[in-house]
Amino acid sequence: MATRSTALGSTRIMIMASLGIVINIVLGTFVQGLQIPLIFLDTIGTIFVAATLGPIAGAMTGGLTNIIQGMITTPKNIPFAIVSIVVGIIVGLIAKKWNFGIKTAIVTGVILAIAAPAIGAPIAAFLFDGVTGGGTDAILMWLRASGQRLLPSVFITRVIGNFIDKIVSCILVSILIVSLPTNFKIGKETRNV
């Protein structure tokens, strides 16, 4: 039988993961609708949950975001769930080891800017010929028109977009975390939540 503390912890994780999913979907859909190049903001919720609750909660938030968004908007999002799961795991592990301050956020953003395209580029290239309807598709088309092969073009395009997006997303989450009560951070008790 679960203790009250365990039940409150599980409830908090479910609530925070749900909030993270909503943030991912709302910001991601908004930015995609505006076709803003080089920024997506569709992982801020995942990064926040992973940085505050750990890699498992972050991975769950990221993966479910893509599945739910795929059912709501376009099924193209579903294959990229693995990318969001990895984002949650990376951020969660880094935040567990180091304080998720601005410097850590920048380094994490750079790591994500390479890791996410390394996983997502082959998915985009082989399932969608690289075109996913994002703001970076124009860069992809330019690279392809200049004679670049598909996979390197998709990877380069995704690194360029993710470099800005992931660093900005991590910095915004770092700033938000500073204002949180101590008991929201990894390894802290969940009393008074």
UniProtKB/TrEMBL annotation:
The chain crosses the membrane at residues 12-31, 38-58, 78-95, 107-128, 159-181. It comes from the Bacteria. Keywords: Membrane, Transmembrane, Transmembrane helix. Signal peptide: none annotated. This is ECF transporter S component.
